Each structure stands twice: as C-alpha cells, then as structure tokens.
C-alpha cells in the first residue's frame, strides 16, 4: 500500500528499514558526542551503560545527546539555507 | 488478545518495512490472519486519506508507529476496559473484521507534530485525535527496559532478552501521554529523534517530567500504581494487626 507521496516528507524520511548513513549524519559532532551517539543510537545502549563505558556521569550523557541533536538541527538548517 | 492481529505488519508496510512472514500455528489461524489483513489494508487506506486531511501547510508525514494491545499495553491509552460503541457502519465493519475495539492505535510522526489516535474512534469521527506539537514538548521520558523471559513455547532454561521502552511526556498545555513501546517501536522513535529537526530541542530523560507537582502525582500512571500498592500493603497490614489483636485478645 502506498500513501500519496505529496504528503510524505522527502529529505528527512528514510524508510525505517533503510539504514541511515550514520558516519555522514554524525560529522558535525565532537568526538565524544560521536561516541555517545554511536552507543545510544546504533548500539542501543542505555545512558547508564554509556556512562559506565565512557566513565562519565549519566547526566553528561544526556547533555551530549541534547547538544548533539541541536548541532544536527543547526546542520540541517544550514543545509537548507545553502 | 488477538492471535491474528495484522495491524503492526500492515502499518510497517506503510513505513516501507518489508513483510515479515510469521508462520501461524494452524491453517485456520493463517487464513483468519490473511482475511483480516486484506480488510485492514482497505480500512487503513481510508484512515490515511483522513490523516492527510489533517495536515497543515508544509506539513509532511515522516512515519507511523503502530501500537496494539498484543505488543504494547492496554493500560495507558486503551480507555476504560477498552470499551467502545461504534457509531458508523464503517467502524462496525472494522470491529467485525478485526475482532478489535480500541486495541489498535496509531502514532503519526510528521515534521511538525505527533498525531495520535485510536483507529476505531478515528474511523467514526475524524476529530477524535490528539495532536502534540514538538515545540510544546519540553522533555520526553524515553527509557529502555530489559527482562529475561522464557522463549515462546519453551521451558525456562532457554531465555530471550525482552526489550521495551517507556514513552512519557506532558505538553506545555497539560496533555499527558504515556505508553510502552516495543523494541521495534523504540527503533523508529530513536530514528525520528535523529532525523526530525523539530524534535531536536526536546530533552530526553529517564524520568517523567510534569508541568507541576499535581500532574506528577495524579497524571502519572507509575505513581498511581505505586500509591495503589502502598495503599494495598497498608490495608493488608491493618488487617493482620486486627487479626492478631483479636486472636491474642481471645486467648
């Protein structure tokens, strides 16, 4: 079954099965943020597990996730402007 | 529980996820599943047409997140005992074909908001949906849980790791949403956190966030559950004390 494509978002809508190009996506992030993103979004670890692995506080993991996602948003905005 | 509910598979196909054939245990179940699947394809086409009518200017659908009583929970969004009285012929046909009342629920992620509805309600009345704008959500509790459980039809020795997620948020205007997501739901949600720019300002937490303390106590199913357990324990304790007093007094 296909939905009328007029209503489907184009750029930000990879089908759920199509693997995201994480390397490209995570380019704007700092090395630590990239590590945190890798563990959270790809390896599906919990913030507690990430904190233990990277020897940081759980709150710091959440902060990296929030800041990183804002950076990605800025990148999308920049991309749209260009 | 409906053993032959095709809702998740039908919605997954709408998301572009290829069909995952799960063999049913008997030919009768297989046939029933296929009958329901065909009926649901037709119903969902109509539902999608109605959903597209809700979209604003520049609003696009990103993907869909299916929820059922079989895979998710009936505790938070299924309503009082999951009851429903159909009002139109279309919803009556849906209930007859799917043997389901409020069990099938759909979360539609757009680039601006989440639209959530119970399928049968939405079939009856197009205004029966909840709209959660991303900029109205300061924080979302998205917490992963894991538990070891016996494999289906197996003895306790062979165990599978079961994964589920809690999704919980309150919008700035006081709408609370709580639900348990399956592992597959969780993957879709995580992908959306990364790929929907409007979601990037939402803080992800591992605890429920509410606008005020009243909502934290009375608008939180987990607090309610804890309070219920504490109350039940207190009543049990009082009963035991009364019983012991009566016994000792009698002796």
TrEMBL record, chain A:
Gene3D superfamilies: Winged helix-like DNA-binding domain superfamily/Winged helix DNA-binding domain. It holds the Pfam family Sigma70_r4_2. SUPFAM superfamilies: Sigma3 and sigma4 domains of RNA polymerase sigma factors. InterPro entries: RNA_pol_sigma70_r4_t2, RNA_pol_sigma_r3/r4-like, WH-like_DNA-bd_sf. Residues 29-72 form the RNA polymerase sigma factor 70 region 4 type domain. Coiled coil: none annotated. It comes from the Bacteria. This is RNA polymerase sigma factor.
Automatic annotation (TrEMBL), chain B:
The keyword Transmembrane helix applies. Keywords: Membrane, Transmembrane, Transmembrane helix. It comes from the Bacteria. The chain crosses the membrane at residues 227-248. This is Uncharacterized protein. It comes from Lapidilactobacillus mulanensis. The lineage of its organism: Bacteria, Bacillati, Bacillota, Bacilli, Lactobacillales.
């Amino acid at each position: 079954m296909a939905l009328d494509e007029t209503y489907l978002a184009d750029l930000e809508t990879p089908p759920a099965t199509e693997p995201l190009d994480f390397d490209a996506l995570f380019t704007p992030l700092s090395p630590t943020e990239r590590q945190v993103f890798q563990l959270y979004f790809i390896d599906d670890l919990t913030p507690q597990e990430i904190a233990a692995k990277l020897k940081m506080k759980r709150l710091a993991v959440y902060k990296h996730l929030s800041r990183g996602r804002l950076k990605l948003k800025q990148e999308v905005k920049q991309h749209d402007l260009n | 529980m409906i053993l032959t509910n095709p809702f998740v598979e039908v919605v997954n196909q709408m998301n572009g996820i290829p069909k995952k054939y799960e063999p049913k245990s008997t030919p009768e179940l297989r046939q029933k599943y296929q009958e329901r699947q065909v009926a649901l394809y037709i119903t969902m086409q109509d539902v999608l047409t109605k959903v597209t009518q809700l979209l604003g200017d520049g609003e696009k659908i990103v993907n869909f997140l299916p929820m059922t009583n079989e895979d998710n929970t009936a505790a938070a969004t299924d309503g009082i005992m999951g009851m429903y009285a159909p009002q139109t012929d279309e919803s009556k046909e849906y209930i007859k074909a799917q043997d389901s009342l409020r069990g099938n629920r759909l979360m539609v992620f757009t680039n601006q908001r989440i639209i959530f509805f119970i399928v049968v309600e939405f079939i009856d009345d197009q205004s029966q949906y909840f709209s959660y704008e991303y900029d109205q959500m300061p924080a979302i509790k998205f917490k992963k849980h894991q538990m070891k459980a016996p494999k289906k039809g197996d003895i306790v020795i062979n165990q599978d790791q079961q994964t589920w997620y809690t999704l919980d948020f309150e919008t700035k205007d006081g709408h609370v949403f709580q639900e348990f997501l399956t592992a597959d739901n969780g993957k879709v949600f995580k992908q959306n956190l990364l790929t929907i720019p409007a979601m990037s300002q939402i803080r992800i937490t591992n605890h429920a966030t509410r606008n005020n303390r009243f909502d934290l106590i009375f608008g939180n199913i987990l607090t309610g559950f804890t309070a219920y357990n504490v109350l039940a324990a207190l009543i049990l304790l009082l009963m035991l004390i009364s019983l012991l007093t009566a016994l000792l007094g009698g002796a």
